[in-house]
């Protein structure tokens, strides 16, 4: 509901703005948040109910942060109640008291210190845990984030190898920053510039090529902030919070680090939230929603891999954490540091316009050159399997030289289609009208659009033939083919299927880092942010599908992804190579990727955006609707269009006619959308805020699912 509700104050306890209260709502008692107080109400006083219970005597957020949330509610056209709800963790939403109790800190005992790989041979997980604690005590949440689970901790504790330690033990883990290699000249320049901006609001974009050592820059600036007794909030993409990141932060800073991410339980999240709010931790490291954590003495916000799509929430409150980070930094008057090898076009445009400081790292920290991408024309190759002969030969050479090879394919499963050889029928999801992906590993057909599954048919549904053949390649098939071809080199596959178990991902990454695997096959999970020192060849198995997307951001995304994947090669300073297989070597994007660095490609694409008057040079919002009955969707959006056209707007505003989404049917529902474009963001804001009350009142709005998406990332 896009509104707030009035209550009389509690009989004895004061209700402060930003605090939670319990209130009667209909027949239930609910947790509410006080967002404003007033001397009068538009409702007759005798009809108002009173606050039943005051949960917090202090506001949950400082007023500046609450103001940011209120602003976000208006900007994203999302009900304030839901925005505030989203900004709280589950325990707080339920009305639990904020508490940071129960922080368990573990350290090695003397007996634990005597253990070796040999004595823990049958329990590699226990050995991992002991290794993690070698540098000093750690919190339970920190250990579980690095691949040690609760069972392991309990087992090792029973053996008296580890013991609970006081919180103060954490301070002793300080590994002096002086043990790091000296910063490069470019790093030093960036660090000096950033340090001179501390203490007030500014936004800096650190554009540093892959492997240029951006993390080192963050860490040095963070150390400066922490030394002043202030706190740092660091956002990382959803899959970017690796054990490696965490241990680098721990070692370099030697302070307590709070964590907020989806792998933690509710109590752990609440504990980190409270510790940040009380100023008990100096650094809070988290994914998207950690942005809303109150910090007692915030001094800096860092958004790593700022271009990453996971910063945009794709359902409910559809905010962009990077954009809201700008608002928060301004409200709290602290600097914001955005970092990426492949900055978003939004941030690049802001940097070019002089709104952001633009800092660059153009050299790799460990020396060596950035690998160039070379395309292999698949049309001229006899394909014996998923990879062409020149690729297999190149792989062979790199493997023989004792290096690792990373093969990237952004498609899970064995094959994206299972086809009847005799009649051409293929297994298709009836709810999405798209082929099922065959997952050999799970012996299932899986729809990647609606997540439904069915058993693999042994016969064609149409003609009864048993000749069902896979068409196209997924990572499973690639793994199988490569293992058969390179018998002597262990292959590992890293994608969402092979890492379903809780710590599987961390474990696999660990094994890759220890050099156990020589060939790494994976999706974008493998492509981002990892520092695999021995990889000297990256193979991009297939990009052709991406060349045909009609999303105006498709070129930007492809370029970012491929630059990131390529950046995994040669990070320890070796000569490295990237090979890309394609049927379209003459496609302009493929050409550009081979001849130009990211920033030049981005320049070209940005001028195209400017010409076409698309974001970041225009503001965009989308109203999307879906229902089982397509007519109802169309009727609703037609009425939306009519309502929008009633609002007087400036002439830069373009209201588009409703159109079907690229994937018009998904999970049984038909999907259409309507786009609104304008030169300025506030023109869109005015239009939407004036039209939405009427749109909500439409009868046709009651029979479809619909939402508003301001600054949408997906536009098809
Ligand atoms: N000053 C330095 N001297 C030597 N090595 C360094 C220095 N700074 C960073 N490195 C090393 O360079 C490698 C790349 O650093 P880092 O992972 O921070 O790069 P990055 O810029 O974050 O790259 P990406 O965007 O690809 O993730 C790491 O192995 C790191 O230890
Ligand atoms: Zn489906």
UniProtKB/TrEMBL annotation:
Reactions catalysed: ATP + H2O = ADP + phosphate + H(+); Couples ATP hydrolysis with the unwinding of duplex DNA by translocating in the 3'-5' direction
InterPro entries, A to Z: DEAD/DEAH_box_helicase_dom, Helicase_ATP-bd, Helicase_C-like, P-loop_NTPase, PriA, PriA_3primeBD, PriA_3primeBD_sf, PriA_C
Residues that coordinate or bind Zn(2+) 2: 429, 432, 447, 450
Free-text remark on how the cofactor is bound: Binds 2 zinc ions per subunit.
Binding sites annotated in the UniProt record for Zn(2+) 1: 420, 423, 460, 463
Cofactor: Zn(2+)
Helicase ATP-binding domain: residues covered: 195-361
Protein name: Replication restart protein PriA
Originating gene: priA
């Amino acid at each position: 509901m896009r509104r707030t509700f009035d209550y009389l104050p509690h009989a004895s306890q004061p209700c402060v703005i930003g605090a939670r209260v319990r209130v009667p709502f209909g027949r239930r008692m609910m947790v509410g948040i006080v967002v404003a107080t007033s001397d009068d109400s538009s409702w007759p006083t005798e009809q108002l109910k009173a606050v039943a219970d005051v949960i917090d005597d202090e506001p949950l957020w400082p007023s500046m942060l609450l103001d940011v949330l209120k602003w976000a509610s208006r900007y994203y056209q999302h009900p304030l109640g839901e925005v505030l709800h989203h900004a709280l963790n589950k325990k707080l939403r339920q009305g639990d008291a904020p508490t940071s109790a129960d922080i368990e800190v573990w350290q090695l005992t003397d007996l634990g210190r005597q253990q070796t790989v040999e004595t823990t041979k049958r329990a590699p997980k226990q050995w991992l845990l002991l290794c993690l604690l070698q540098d000093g005590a750690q919190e339970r949440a920190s250990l579980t984030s690095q691949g040690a689970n609760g069972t392991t901790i309990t087992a090792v504790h029973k053996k008296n190898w580890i013991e609970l330690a006081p919180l103060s033990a954490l301070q002793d883990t300080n590994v002096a920053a002086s043990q790091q290699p000296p910063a490069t000249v470019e790093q030093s320049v960036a660090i000096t510039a950033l340090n001179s901006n501390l203490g007030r609001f500014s936004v800096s974009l650190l554009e540093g090529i892959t492997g240029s050592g951006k993390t080192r820059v963050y860490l040095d600036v963070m150390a400066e902030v922490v030394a002043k007794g202030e706190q740092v909030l660091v956002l990382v993409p959803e899959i970017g919070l690796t054990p490696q990141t965490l241990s680098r932060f721990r070692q370099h800073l030697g302070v307590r680090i709070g964590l907020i991410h989806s792998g933690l339980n509710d109590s752990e999240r609440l504990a980190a939230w409270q510790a940040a709010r009380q100023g008990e931790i100096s650094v809070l490291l988290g994914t998207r929603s950690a942005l809303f954590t109150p910090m007692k003495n915030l001094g800096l916000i860092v958004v790593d891999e700022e271009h990453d799509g996971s910063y945009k929430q794709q359902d409910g409150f559809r905010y962009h954490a990077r954009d809201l980070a700008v608002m928060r930094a301004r409200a709290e008057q602290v600097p914001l540091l955005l970092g990426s090898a492949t900055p978003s076009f939004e941030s690049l445009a802001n940097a070019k316009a002089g709104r952001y400081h633009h800092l660059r790292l153009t050299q790799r920290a460990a020396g060596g050159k950035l690998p160039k991408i070379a395309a292999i024309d698949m049309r001229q190759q006899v394909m014996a399997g998923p990879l062409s002969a020149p690729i297999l030969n190149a792989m062979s050479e790199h493997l023989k030289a004792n290096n690792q090879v990373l093969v990237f394919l952004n498609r899970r499963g064995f094959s994206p289609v299972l086809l009847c050889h005799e009649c051409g029928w293929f297994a298709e999801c009836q709810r999405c009208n798209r082929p099922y992906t065959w997952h050999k590993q799970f012996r299932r057909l899986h729809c990647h659009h609606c997540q439904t599954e069915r058993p693999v048919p042994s016969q064609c549904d149409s003609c009864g033939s048993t000749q069902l053949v896979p068409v196209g390649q997924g990572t499973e098939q690639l793994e199988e083919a490569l293992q058969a071809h390179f018998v002597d080199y262990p292959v590992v596959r890293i994608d969402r299927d092979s890492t379903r178990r809780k710590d599987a991902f961390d474990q696999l990454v660990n094994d890759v880092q220890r050099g156990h695997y020589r060939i790494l096959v994976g999706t974008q999970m493998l492509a981002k942010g990892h520092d695999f020192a021995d990889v000297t060849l990256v193979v991009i198995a297939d990009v052709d599908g991406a060349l045909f997307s009609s999303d105006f951001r498709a070129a930007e995304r492809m370029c970012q992804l491929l630059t990131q994947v390529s950046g995994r090669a040669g990070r320890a300073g070796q000569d490295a190579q990237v090979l890309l297989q394609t049927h379209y070597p003459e496609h302009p994007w493929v050409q550009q990727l081979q001849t130009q660095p990211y920033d030049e490609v981005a320049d070209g694409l940005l001028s195209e955006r400017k010409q076409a008057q698309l974001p970041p040079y225009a503001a965009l919002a989308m109203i999307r609707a879906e229902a089982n009955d397509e007519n109802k969707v169309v009727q609703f959006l037609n009425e939306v269009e009519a309502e929008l056209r009633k609002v007087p707007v400036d002439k830069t505003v373009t209201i588009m006619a409703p159109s079907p989404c690229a994937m018009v049917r998904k999970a049984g529902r038909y999907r259409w959308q309507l786009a609104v474009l304008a030169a300025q963001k506030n023109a869109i804001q005015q239009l939407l805020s004036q039209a939405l009350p009427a749109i909500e009142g439409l009868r046709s709005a009651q029979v479809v699912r619909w939402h508003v998406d301001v600054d949408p990332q997906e536009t098809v």
